[in-house]
């Protein structure tokens, strides 16, 4: 290890802050240079996962929205499904919708309002409380769920884990203790349930992410 490499690693540690680099040093037995390499790897994996999760979020959002739009029209209801004509949404969900409308403007088309609703909103639509109200419509977003496993919890559980991972990445937190291959499998499962071709495009064809996961410093 050259003196310049040691000096650079020390400089990076001070710029990041020793406390922030602490988990990385702990993961490599205190070796500063390896910790800095691991920090860079974590950032690179986070960026790659962020892209893949972004695809997953859009596919999930649109699949659920399309299923709810279809059910809404089937009942010949006026307006949009997120107007909540049956009064089944929680106060939190209605507040999220109101905030999305505020950001997009009162005359914005439904698609823009839907796009403003974050991952957490869609995650909570899969909650047990909606099993008898929204799930009968939402289940059509997942036509490829295995028979015998067509209940909201089967989708909700991996979506919760993916949402948690997304939030860790958004806050630039270490991913060192997370079983990242398992999170890839979670995303595969969710997208498979929507359409296996989406899983292939978003996950299996992304050799960069899969390669990074197998080359952790």
Question: Can you summarize this structure?
Answer:
The chain is mostly helical and 217 residues long.
Order of helices and strands: HHHHHHHHHHH
User: Could you estimate the helical fraction of the residues in percent?
Assistant: 55-70%
What does the radius of gyration come to?
A: 21 Å
SS strand fraction: under 5%
Q: Looking at the structure, what is the overall shape? A: elongated
Largest sheet: none
Describe the structure.
The model has no long low-confidence stretch (mean pLDDT 94). The chain has one domain (40-213). The two termini are 16 Å apart. It is 68% helix and 0% strand. By secondary structure, the chain is mainly α. This is Abi-like protein. It comes from Pseudonocardia ammonioxydans.
Strand and helix layout:
Blueprint (H helix, E strand, L loop, with lengths): L2 H14 L1 H10 L4 H43 L16 H14 L5 H7 L2 H6 L10 H4 L13 H19 L9 H15 L1 H9 L2 H7 L4
Helix pairs in contact: 1-2, 2-3, 3-8, 3-9, 3-11, 4-5, 8-9, 9-10
Notable characteristics:
mainly alpha; elongated
